Amino acid sequence: MVLRRHKRSQSGFGEAFFGIESVENAAIADVFDEMAELMEFRSENPFRIRAYRGGAQAIRDLDEPIAEIAKDSNRKLADLPGIGKTLAEKTLVLLDTGRLAQLDELRKAVPQVVVQMARIPGLGAKKAAKLKEMLEIESLDDLKRACQEGTVRKIKGFGAKTEQVILDGLAIAQQAAERIYWAKGDQLAHQIGAHMDQCKSITQMQWAGSYRRGRESIGDLDLLAVANDRGAAMDHFEAFPGRSQTIARGETKISIRVAGAFQVDMRLVEANQFGAALQYFTGSQAHNVHLRRIAKEQGLKINEYGVFRNEQELQIAGDTEQSVYQAVGLRWIEPELREDRGEFQWAQQNELPKLIELSDILGDLHMHTSATDGKATLHEMADAAIERGLRYIAITDHSKRVSMASGLDPKRLRQQWDAIDAMRGDYEGRLLILKGIECDILEKGGMDLPDECLAEADWVLASVHYGQKQPRDQITERILGAIENPHVDCIAHPSGRLINRRPPYEVDMEAVMKAVVANKKMMELNANPARLDLNDVHLAAAKRHGIPIVISTDAHSIDGLDVMKYGIKQARRGGLEKANVANTKSWNHIKKLLTP
Ligand code: DGT
Ligand code: CA
Ligand code: CA
Ligand code: ZN
Question: Are residues 390 and 530 in the same domain?
Answer without folding.
Answer: yes
